[in-house]
């Protein structure tokens, strides 16, 4: 199978689900694609989805790389983002006057904190060969307490114009800032994958670590690197989330987002057991999840029941995307192709001619 056909097969599920959700929303209301300009910024269903999924998209990119290389998932990403954003807020508030330079410095320090957390998980997985979900369970369990201690047992508020503009809109720019930051991050990720051998190394390690080692690739370094990248992703997501909220909530910030990130990877056509991956599929999967959440709200489903409907929808998707169903569908399609080939072949034409003459 060619690379283009493989990419299309990866994107079939997320694109199909997104189209289905769009159809449901169009049935619910014809104004689904309407966009209005409010105070110089664009608002509407589509901008709101792009805005709401910003953190999830960034975390899904990191989760894709971790899953592909380590054959497991990092369930501490929401907690790590809470810790890195706590470091950012602490630095900004202690710096005194908040300037753009202060914000950038705080962001870089939070990225360094994210890399430390990623290195912690990466060391457990790559060096000590702890299963990724178990290794990240340590931070998942105690990480919010660490963020709470960094906050000083408070919920500090970012009361400054620069943070407000990062979390909402910059005057004179119609697109909301988190959407712009997410787009920039996607471009950077795409450039890294296109200009380096990272994709090749990650997929090689995920498919067969022993074979990768024989070909000069160090599986430990690659797995460790993916967790470092995941740490940076958590810092970026935490930075966007805390500026959106305008305050740091160590208890609820990006709570349980790791489940949506894992789901986005799965919906994107990626195997949760590692190997080949599609960043594009994961990004579409992340936006699909956000669209699903907003669609359920649009259908006026009670908030308490949304998780139930979402769970049922996810089960259906996972069954459709399962290897068993895929193999069965592929088997049926192969039979149909073979039958069409036999019906259109010269041998079939000759046989029909002989039967006609005998009649």
Overall geometry: globular
Please, how many domains?
Answer: 2
**What's the tally of helices?**
16
Radius of gyration: 24 Å
Q: How widely separated are the two ends? A: 45 Å
Largest sheet: 2 strands, antiparallel
Question: Can you tell me the residue ranges where pLDDT is under 50 for at least 5 consecutive residues?
Answer: none
The helicity comes to over 70%
- The strand line-up of the biggest sheet is 1-2
What class would the helix/strand composition place it in?
mainly alpha
Report mean pLDDT, rounded to a whole number: 89
Succession of helices and strands = HEEHHHHHHHHHHHHHHH
Query: Which architecture of the largest domain per CATH?
Result: Orthogonal Bundle
How big a fraction of the residues is strand? under 5%
CATH level 3 topology of the largest domain: ABC transporter involved in vitamin B12 uptake, BtuC
- Total beta-strand segments: 2
Top-tier CATH class of the largest domain: Mainly Alpha
Task: List the topology elements.
Layout: H1 3-28, E1 35-38, E2 41-44, H2 45-52, H3 54-70, H4 77-94, H5 100-126, H6 132-150, H7 161-167, H8 177-195, H9 198-207, H10 209-214, H11 219-245, H12 257-267, H13 279-298, H14 303-321, H15 323-344, H16 346-358
Antiparallel strand pairs: 1-2
Helix pairs in contact: 1-13, 3-8, 3-9, 3-11, 3-12, 3-13, 4-5, 4-6, 4-11, 5-6, 5-11, 7-11, 9-11, 12-13, 13-14
Characteristic key phrases:
359 residues, mainly alpha, ABC transporter involved in vitamin B12 uptake, BtuC, two-stranded antiparallel ribbon, 2% strand
């Amino acid at each position: 199978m060619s690379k283009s056909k493989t990419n299309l097969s990866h994107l079939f599920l997320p694109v199909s689900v997104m189209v289905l959700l769009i159809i449901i929303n169009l049935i619910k209301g014809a104004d689904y694609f309407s966009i209005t300009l409010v105070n110089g910024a664009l608002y509407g269903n589509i901008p709101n989805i792009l805005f709401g999924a910003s953190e999830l998209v960034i975390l899904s990119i990191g989760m894709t790389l971790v899953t592909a290389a380590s054959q497991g998932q990092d369930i501490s990403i929401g907690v790590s983002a809470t810790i890195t954003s706590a470091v950012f807020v602490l630095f900004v508030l202690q710096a005194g006057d908040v300037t753009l330079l202060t914000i950038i410095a705080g962001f870089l320090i939070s990225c360094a904190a994210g890399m430390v957390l990623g290195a912690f998980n990466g060391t457990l997985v790559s060096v000590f060969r702890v299963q990724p979900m178990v290794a990240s369970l340590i931070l998942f369990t105690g990480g919010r307490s660490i963020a709470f201690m960094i906050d000083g047992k408070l919920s500090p508020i970012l009361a400054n114009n620069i943070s407000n503009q990062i979390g909402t809109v910059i005057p004179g720019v119609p697109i909301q800032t988190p959407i712009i930051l997410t787009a920039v991050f996607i471009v950077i990720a795409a450039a890294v994958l296109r200009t380096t051998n990272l994709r090749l190394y990650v997929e090689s390690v995920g498919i067969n670590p022993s074979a990768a080692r024989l070909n000069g690739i160090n599986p430990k370094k690659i797995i460790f690197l993916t967790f470092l990248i995941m740490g940076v992703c958590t810092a970026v997501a935490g930075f966007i989330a805390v500026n959106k909220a305008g305050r740091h909530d160590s208890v609820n910030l990006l709570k349980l987002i790791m489940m949506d990130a894992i789901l986005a990877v799965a919906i994107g056509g990626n195997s949760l057991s590692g190997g080949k991956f599609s960043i594009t599929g994961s990004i579409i999967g992340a936006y699909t999840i956000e669209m699903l959440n907003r669609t359920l709200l649009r259908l006026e489903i009670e908030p308490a029941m949304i998780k139930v409907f979402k769970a049922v929808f996810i089960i259906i998707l996972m069954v459709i995307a399962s290897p068993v169903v895929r193999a069965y569908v592929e088997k049926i399609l192969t039979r149909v192709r073979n039958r069409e080939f036999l019906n259109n072949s010269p041998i079939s034409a000759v046989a029909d001619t002989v039967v006609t003459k005998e009649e």
